[in-house]
Amino acid sequence: xxxxxxxxTAFADCVTGWFEAEDVLPxxxxxxxxxxDAEPALYGVGAGGGAARLEAVGIETPAETGLVSGPTxxxxxxxxxNDTTAVGFVVESDPQFPDPDAATAVxxxxxxxxxxxxxxxxxxxxxxxxxxxxxxxxxxxxxxxSEENSRAEPIRMYQ
Length: 159
Prior knowledge:
By secondary structure, this protein is an alpha+beta fold. The chain has helices spanning about 10-20, 50-55, 70-80, 100-115, 120-150; strands at about 25-35, 40-45, 85-95.
């Protein structure tokens, strides 16, 4: 959800207030570009008791700092500043296309163990094949268009 930087703090205050009123563990998700053919890596960052929850299920923190920005970063920063519990996942994902494999990684390796749930992700696997097929078709069309546009054609006046 696009949120202007000036509104990030007010947004974080509002959303965090709702989480506290409803007594739920906030889980925030952010993406990190990856190669499409690679298995998506999943990292976790925690505030308050969230860090211990991530450690308990074996989710490592990212090696780099500053990976979480925008609304997700504002929400996690708010949790740290106010000593509230929150969990953030950083998943490697395709930056250009929907990424069911990344969504599956977050659900199966992150949300399921943290929340002690079992979620059926089979439809995501089905969609992954469809999206990959569409991606390949798009790349093929782009290559064909590029080849057609780069062909030199004689101009009548200079023949």
